[in-house]
Amino acid sequence: MSATLAIVNANILDASPDLSGPHHITIEDGVITGVLPVNGSAPKADVVIDADGRTTTAGLIDTHVHLAFDGTADTWWEIDPRPDTLAMRCYHHSLENLIRGITTVRDLGAPGFAPMAVRDAIRDLGLLGPRIQTCGRAVTSTGGHQWNVSFEGNGPVGVRTAVREVIKQGADCIKLFATGFPLVEPEGYDGYQMQPDEMAAAIDEAHERKRKVAVHACNEKSVRAAVEAGADGIEHGLDLTDDTLALMAEKKVAFAATLACVATFTGCNHREPEGFNDLTKGSYSLIRRAFDIGVPLVCGSDSGASPPGTLAWELEAMSGAGLSDEVVLASATSVAAEALGLEDRGALRAGLLGDVVVWKDSFYGDPHQIVIGGRAL
Ligand SMILES: [Zn+2]
Prior knowledge:
Blueprint: E1 4-12, E2 21-28, E3 31-37, E4 47-50, E5 55-58, E6 60-65, H1 75-78, H2 83-98, E7 102-107, H3 114-125, E8 131-134, E9 139-140, E10 151-152, H4 155-168, E11 173-177, H5 196-208, E12 212-217, H6 220-228, E13 233-236, H7 242-250, E14 254-256, H8 259-265, H9 278-293, H10 311-320, H11 325-331, H12 334-339, E15 356-359, E16 367-372, E17 375-376
Parallel strand pairs: 1-4, 1-5, 6-7, 7-8, 9-10, 11-12, 12-13, 13-14
Antiparallel strand pairs: 1-2, 2-3, 5-15, 15-16, 16-17
Helix pairs in contact: 2-3, 4-5
Bound molecules: zinc ion.
C-alpha cells in the first residue's frame, strides 16, 4: 500500500520563479507526485499538513559539513577515535542538521569512515536522518592541512592510491586539501601543499571512478591549478583573480566561499560587518565578484568547524554579502543539487524526492514542519 502525504496551502519559494506562489504539494512513496495551484480542491492523503500560507521550499542542502566535529577547535585533535563512538557523534550531528531543515549534507572530511556507516544506516535501514554524501577521509599531503584526520598521499602515484583507498571504503566524492588555512599553518596559506601534478592525478583518478572532487584551496595559484585539472568544486578560495573566476564560470566549477566560517574562524561575527577583518571583507567581496562573473555559487557552512547545523549562518552571510534571496536559496537547493550530481532533488517538482520544508517565517530561520522522503518529522 502506498503512503501519501500532502502539504496544502504552501507558499512555495523556488529558485525557478514559475513554481513560486500558493500550491498544494502531493507526495507518494517518498516522491513528489504533484505541485498544484490551490484553486482546485485540496488533495486527499494519509497525512495532510496545512502550511497555512507559510513559505515552503525544497529541503536544504549543505554542501560542506564535517559530521564528526562539533565546532570546538580542540576536537580536531582530541576527538575520540573509536569507530563506534565516532559513528554516534556523526549520527547525532546529522540530526542537528535535519531538524533545521537541512535534508542533504555533503560531509567533506572525518577522521575515519564513520559518515559512511551513518549514511548507509539512514539510507538502507530507515534510520531517521538527512541524506548524506561523504568523502570519508579527505586526501592531503604528508603534514598537509588536517593531516591528523586525513589520508596522506604524495606524488601523483601516492595521491592516486589515496583516492582509490577512500573510494574502496565507500566515498561518494573526493576532498583534496591543496593549501593551508588562515591561523592554522604557521607558514601561511599562500603556497602549494599539493602540487598541480598531484591534484591532476587525484582528480583524474576520481573522475575515472565517477566521483566529483571538491578542493580546499585558499590561494590563487592553487585554485587555478585545481580548476585547470578539472576540479568540480572549490572550497574557501579566499583571494582569486577575475581571470580565475572567469575560468570557474566557464567550466561550471561550484564555489563554496564559506563566508561565515572564514568570519568565525578568524574571530569575527558574520552578523557584525563593522568588525570584519581584511580576510573576511575579502571573502565577501570575492563572492560578489564570483556572482557577477557567473560562477555557480553553492552554500557550504563548513559546520563542524562551526557548530553542527549552522547552514543558516552561511545563508545569512551570503545575504549580507549582497546576494538576493533567490540566489541564496538556489545555492542551498537547485545549484547545490546540480553541483553534487544529485538530480533527484533541489526543487519542488513532480518526480523529485519528497524533501520539503515549511518555514515558520523564512528559510533563514526555523522550520515549522520538515518532510523527508514523504515522512513528516
Ligand atoms: Zn571543511
